[in-house]
Each structure stands twice: as structure tokens, then as C-alpha cells.
Amino acid sequence: MPSSDEDALEATLPASSDGGATPTPAPAPTPSALPDRIGRYEIKDTLGAGGMGTVLLAVDPVLGRKVALKVLHPDGRNDNETTRRRLLREAQGIAQLVHEHVVVVHEIGTHDDRVFLAMEHVAGQTLGKWQVGRPWAELVATYVKAGRGLAAAHDAGLVHRDFKPDNVLIGDDGRVRVTDFGLVATVEDATTPLSQTATALRQESELVKSLTRTGTVVGTPRYMAPEQHLGQPIDARADQFAFAVSLYEALFGQPPFIGATYADLARHVVAGVPLPIPRDTPVPPAIRAAVLRGLARQPADRFASMAALLAALEAPPPARRRRWPWLVAVACAAVVAVLIAWILRSRDDAARARRDAARARAEVVALKTGLRDASEGARLHFDQAQAAYAGRRYADAARESLAAYALKPMPQLLYNAAAAWHMIARTELDRTAAAASVDLYRRYLRAAPTASDRAKVEHAIARLEPLAAGDSAAPRP
Known about the structure:
Oligomer: single chain
Mean pLDDT: 75
Strand content: 5-15%
Shape: elongated
Radius of gyration: 40 Å
Number of domains: 2
Largest sheet: 6 strands, antiparallel
Low-confidence stretches: 15-28, 184-219, 364-371, 387-391
CATH topology of the largest domain: Transferase(Phosphotransferase), domain 1
Structural class: alpha+beta
Number of strands: 9
Strand order of the largest sheet: 1-2-3-4-6-5
Order of helices and strands: HEEEEHEEEHHEEHHHHHHHHHHHHH
Helix content: 40-55%
């Protein structure tokens, strides 16, 4: 059973939307057919043509400047007096809109019963051509400028109805200007349902063009909001939808909605489920979320205004640098907790630590070494047992010494760590411990170049080096 939206969509779709010949627009004037003059403007060339009109390059002899002269086609809809008056009234509203990101309309009038607009001539290129290959940040910044032009129109009570990259000009001066406000799909009022004129509008060349081989539709349909496809009343939020479609294409290199025919495209738009955003996009999540909200199926689910959407696009992302103070605080808290635990444990286990130290001294004395080495070993064992407390392994004592050194660099802490590894190497003939002890002893000598025990430490290094090098025949260090 089809939904009510599907029924409404079927009612607005042109009969030829699933096949058949594409209606052709009124032909653009050939150079030989160009009039010499329209109003006071001297015609020089043709700049382009669309479904509603032809844009001519002209010169204003009074002010000595170039203008873009848009002359509307006599296509059966705008060649009667009522329509001409409506177009003139709307053009007058556009002419009153003065904004740095909107093309200036200098004059409106009629010529041979056809409405024309004399507009600012912009030397440059369309946004559609300019945006290819641009980084996402530059794209967003440029679209925000175009969005400000749309917002200014909305504040003046105008709805564009056909925003798309080709209706935005990037001048050679770098300024962004929105053009063609309200003229490509003019209706009695933005709040008047489009059902009476939807078929006629979609039969213009800009609204129903041949499908590309990639299966997408070129022209206006892919920028139209669901309410436009459904023939429902529209307002400024339809422009917001078209803006979001345009920005989605620019950022992600694909349209949000596709279809093999215009009818398929319209159904996908009305369904309100855009294509997934590519996973490898560098576009920040906040920007993606703003674009997707602008593509919401229901106008009420979009931003309340273009200004709100632009604010979301311009909002700075959460600064990563704000994270490091938290990391430092957590690290400091962890160190403090360890130190507190260490102090508490040291108090409780002092007696056991003394017993372990005595046991260590006895073990060293039992080693089959010279008296001098045994005495030195006993002292090292005793010192490290005191540092480790509670019978901890010497490896733990060494790590504690290094951790303490990181907090408060002191050569003595390096020496303590070296001595701890030295005792593992001595008692277990451990190669890794010997290498660690040699490294730490050397670091100690660099940290304390005038140490009084330098000769003793160098002697210890010389005894440890054979074992660290893997010499199985090396004497006990």
C-alpha cells in the first residue's frame, strides 16, 4: 500500500519522468539574432542560456560599465501581462537586496514584452567549477559566504528556490556572489503549493535534463527539497536543503541522493535517506552533522534558519589541547597515590625490611668471592633492601629509583638503580641485568662527573661488561 507521500509524489511527477523524450528549452539567440540594444544597454555577446532565460553581455553606455543582461524566454508562462507584472514585482524585491555576497541587480524592465534584468557582471567562474579538488576547510569557508547571501535574501523575505553551485559566482576578486534569486522557478508566492505548476517547472531544461551515464540527474532536481518534489508549500528551509545538498557534494564528492530517472531521484529525496558519507573523509564530525541536519526530510527537523546552519558550520571544533591538562592531572594524581601507598607500606614493613637486609648480607658473605667484593656486595644488598622494603625484588627497587629520578633528577637515584641491577647480575648471573647496570652506572658518571666513588663505579662497570656482552666464561661481577 503506497504511503501518502508516495501518492503525493506520483501526483506531481511529469508523465515523461520515467522515459520518453526530454522537453527542449527555448533556443538561445544566435549571435546574428542578437538585438543591438535592449533598453539603454548595448548587446555584445551571449554569456549563457537556461530554461527561463538568456544571459547577455552588455554595456551600459551611461555609466560605462559591463552588465549581465538576463532576458526571460517567452515560453507560454511568462509572456502574459499577469506573469510579467509578477516577475517585475519579484525582480524589484531582488533589486532592493544589497549584500556583498549577492549579485547586484541594477535595473529591471521589459523589452518586446519580455522581462529583463540588468545585473552586475562578475568576471570569474561558478562555484561548481571552482570547488573541484579544494580542501574541505576552504570549501566550508566559501559555502558559508554563499550562505550569508542566502540568509540576507531570507531576511528580506525572498526565497531563492534554485540554489546550486552553478548559481553562485566566484569573482576574480575572490568575492562570492549568489545569483538568480527566485527567477528560475517563480511561483505566485513561496507559500503557494507547487502542485499546480510542478509539471511545467520540471519540464524546463534545467529541471529535466538527460541522465548522465553514472545514473545521476544533472540540473536542479537533485537540489530540490522533498516538499518541492511533493508539491507542498515551501519556504526558506527549502533553500537550506539545496545548500546542504550542494555542500554535501562538494565535501564528499558524491550527491546525497541519486536515481536512474527523475522519478527515482525524487523518491529517494522524499524518503529522506542520503547515501552514507565516505568513511575516509577528513571532514570533522561536527561539519558532517550540520550538513546532514540540513538534509532532513522534514523542514521542521532542519535548522531554524540559514544563520543557524552557518553558525554550526563555523563553530570551532573542541580544541585537542584542552585534553592535556586532564592527562597531566591524572598522572599527577597517580604519582601521589603511589607515593602515599609507598610511605604507608614503608611504615608498616620497616621491621621486615631490616630482616631482609640482614638475610641479604648473609647471602653475600656466603658468595665465593674475595673479602673486598663480599663486603661491597653486602653493603649494596643492605642498601637496596632498605630501599625496596618488605622483601621486594631488586628489579622493583631499580624501577622505583628510576621513577624517583624522573620526578627529582638526582645522581644518587641513578646509582641506586644501577646497584640494584648489579646485585641481580651478581647473584643470578643475569645478562640483561648486567647490561642495565652498566648503562645506569654510566648515566650516573655523566650526571656526577666529579663523584668521589668514580673509580669504584668504573671498576664495577669493567666487571659487569663481560657478562653484559654474553661472555659465559666471565668471572662473577
